[in-house]
Specification:
- Helix 2 links the parallel strand 3 and strand 4.
- A five-stranded parallel sheet has the order 5-4-3-6-7, with helices on one face. Strands 10-8-12-13 form a four-stranded parallel sheet. A two-stranded antiparallel ribbon has the order 1-2.
- It contains 13 helices and 13 strands.
- The longest helix is centred in the middle third of the chain and has 22 residues.
- With 294 residues, the chain is of the alpha/beta class.
- It folds into two domains: 122 residues, Nitrogenase molybdenum iron protein domain (Rossmann fold), CATH 3.40.50.1980; 119 residues, Nitrogenase molybdenum iron protein domain (Rossmann fold), CATH 3.40.50.1980.
């Protein structure tokens, strides 16, 4: 069946539209997009927030908790996609993510692309502006630019509201934001939408001069002595208590003053319009006197 579909796709004349995706490639759409497979929760959230959830025919397993996803649709493993299952779903588009190729240089959807199924990639967003671009791209490819414009406008208005409030802040606090707990500690530097979020609320990332994702030593965190520690770790029982108990951390201002806060995981790690929830949490945690109590 797969061989026959490959031959059919190769012989078919494509008269659709070709446009650049968000991953640096090109995608050709031969007709209306009514059946979508989403391979990442951030992509799924964008589709749902555009009011187009009814077009989803399959999602990745991390998207099952996305509010607004129709019940009962299949969940697939997109690190090792089953081409035959995907072909059977007859998708008009696979909306993929840079994480799908993690651990391999191979495009996991190469065979499906060769069969003529459009695959559009969205790379990991490096800024809030990138998220606006992702939303605009998805809206355009799904021929719903008005909905995309409205969603972006709503998101921008809320970001601007928070940024305006930050102008009243006289002393910018320093923040350490942990995204993976000990012993495999990870945080982020510049070229990250999370770093942008720290700036929007009027604070400074203690690793803001570093590049992308980094694994800092305990000594580096202690030396930078953050005023506030934020964590979105959700895979251990007490991430705040674990941070407080680390050797030497009792000398950090954030620990001394009990300024360690949990930030919602999903809304902080999924680059979509729903980052606004995490952004408001961050603002209220770092500057309760400006943004209100958490």
């Amino acid at each position: 069946m797969l061989a026959a579909l490959v031959m059919t796709a190769a012989c078919a004349k494509n008269t659709g539209r070709t446009l650049p995706d968000r991953g640096g490639g090109m995608v050709t759409i031969s007709g209306p997009v009514n059946r979508i497979i989403s391979t990442a929760p951030s992509n799924t959230e964008i589709i749902v927030d555009l009011g187009l959830a009814d077009k989803l025919v399959a999602i990745d397993r991390w998207s099952v908790d996305v509010a607004g996803v129709p019940g009962g649709i299949p969940t697939l493993d997109f690190f090792y996609p089953d081409a035959e299952v995907i072909v059977g779903l007859e998708p008009d588009l696979i909306l993929a993510n840079g994480h799908n190729a993690t651990g391999t240089s191979e495009d996991p959807f190469r065979l499906l692309r060769e069969m003529g199924i459009p695959v559009a990639y969205i790379s990991m967003s490096k800024s809030i502006n990138d998220i606006y671009g992702d939303i605009s791209f998805v809206a355009d490819i799904l021929q719903s630019p008005e909905k995309g414009g409205a969603l972006i406008a709503s998101m921008k208005a809320q970001v601007d509201e928070i940024a305006r409030a930050a102008q009243a802040i006289e002393r910018r606090k320093s923040v350490y934001f942990e995204i993976s707990a000990a012993p495999d500690v990870f945080t982020f530097g510049k070229d990250s939408y999370l770093n942008d979020m720290i700036s929007v609320i009027g604070a400074e990332n203690i690793f803001g001069n570093e590049n992308w994702i980094i694994s800092p030593s305990a000594e580096a965190i202690i030396d930078r002595n953050p005023d506030v520690i934020l964590t979105n770790v959700d895979y251990i029982d007490d991430p705040v208590g674990e941070l407080k108990s680390r050797p030497g951390f009792d000398h950090i201002n954030a620990v001394i003053n009990n300024c360690i806060y949990r930030i919602d995981t999903n809304s902080s790690v999924r680059p979509s319009a729903r980052i606004i929830f995490a952004l408001r949490q961050m603002a209220r945690a770092v500057y309760p006197e400006v943004y209100g109590e958490q």
